[in-house]
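Kindly inspect the following:
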Amino acid sequence: MLALRRDIDWWNLPGGGMEIGETVEEAVYREVEEETGLKIEVEQLVGIYSKPQKQEIVLTFRCRVVGGTLIETDESSECRYFATTALPDKLLPKHRQRVEDALLKQERAVLRNQLTSSEEDQRQPLK
């Protein structure tokens, strides 16, 4: 399930930051419900993604829906399910990688650095 962000008109996975006093699990439940209207249950940690340029660490979880209804929200103009073979072209690239990682259904979480395009260019080996 993906959400179409109002601010940039790109599809993304629901998510966001933790609030003070909140556990990771509570933050996941709250963010998904705020952005989609769905109540979920966390099934598995898919990956840990470091974003050094922003000094952020992103956790991605595979979840299953246990209630609620997909709704339009202040942050998302549309929420929709997509076939895994038909993801939208305007899916944020870092989120596309996280979806692909979730589809692998590995036993252990992946660890990835997610760099900006300019950082990726700088880290390419010299020829």
Remarks:
- Helices lie at 24-36, 93-104, 117-122.
- The chain has three helices and six strands.
- The two ends are 41 Å apart (CA to CA).
- Residues 2-122 form a domain with the Nucleoside Triphosphate Pyrophosphohydrolase fold (CATH 3.90.79.10).
